[in-house]
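User: Could you check the structure of this?
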Amino acid sequence: MPAWLHDTLQIVSFGYVVTMKSVVFRVIAGIVVGGCLLVGCSSSDKAFVPKGQIVINPQFDSAESFDGASGLAAVGMISGKDADGNDIYKYGYIDKSGKYVINPQFDLANAFDGASGLAVVGMISGKDADGNDIHKYGYIDKSGKYVINLQFDSASSFDGASGLAVVGMISGKDADGNDIDKYGYIDKSGKYVINLQFDSASSFDGASGLAVVGMISGKDADGNDIYKFGYIDKSGKYVINPQFDGAGEFDATTGLAVIVDVVGKDSIQKYGFIDKSGKLVINPKFDGVDFHAPGFHGAWGLAVVGIKSGKDSDRYYIYKYGYIDKSGKYVINPQFDSAESFDENSGLAKVSMQSGKNVDGYNIYKFGYIGESGTYVINPQFDSAESFDGASGLAAVGMISGKDADGNDIYKFGYIDKSGKYVINPQFDGAGYFDKSTGLAPVKSGGKWGYIN
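Assistant: Sure, the predicted structure tokens are below.
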């Protein structure tokens, strides 16, 4: 079984992760989808035009976008060094003036969610036998007060589909001395609605009202756990029994979800799609999907899929990616070296193509954007690129501007519109998404993070 099927889900904010052994195919939160650039939008929904001016001076050691639930942004400051010489961060929350509303005090912090108005935070509670930090997680309100005390070994934000959050607790040790984790679901009072019982769990999705959960079914030849995944409703009852080697969320466009079938002695992964009854609609025949947002998503209701096209000089598989409709038919043939779903804000999809090799023999990729037909709207030219956000209608892109003292690439980031024209020229050392609630985006300059309008 591939490592990504049973490894830790990383709920990423900025400079930290809340780890949770969970199913693959969770869409990473953080992309603001709320603006409207497509046909049928009211004038009040249309994106504003950013200016690119610094409004909160770079002063933070880490920063993320403001969230619409609280109007606050989580920021971090280095408070010292640990025994190994690594930076110690403390996290707090600022308002759009840059003033602290909640002072830096947490060892981990996540954005406030719209379902509960709460944010996951974590504090170091000790060290394990190997000297690694042990964290406990709880939930605060936007005044910084604990609503659910620190008690969980892992925790996720509350989801809007069920009003529940996934939490995990260590229940013991296996024969090799590794933690055994069990997952369940709590309501916003902290009470268990679905008791700790699953070996893996994800949030409920809005399209089906179901959540993917996994159970260990045995060991493979190398002694690794084998997981089987199914779907539960918010009472914790199985609607689709555990049977898949991997599983993703259902999408609202087609009502389908991607699943994985591991086949053969070499454990080859094949990807297909099921409906909400668990019936296969598209047989597992593809070699890859868009791991950022697998399934049918975005403006045109297409899914990214990949196929093996050969091997490189090091005998690694080469994949080409295209797009299928809900019948499994190719709408855009496999041709790209990477591809992501079409976003609803621009109607474009980010793709990449190999453009050569660097001096160390590694592939160089250039990123561009395609339209519904698969033709380029913005030719591959960027060294780094993100999707368009709904708040500004812009996408952050990066270009390599040189090398640092260690020989690593130095990037400069700016923002383009959906014609590919720079609205904010490349000038920042890092760049995040604009959010609709404040009209601000985090950027890095001179080693510190601030915000532009």
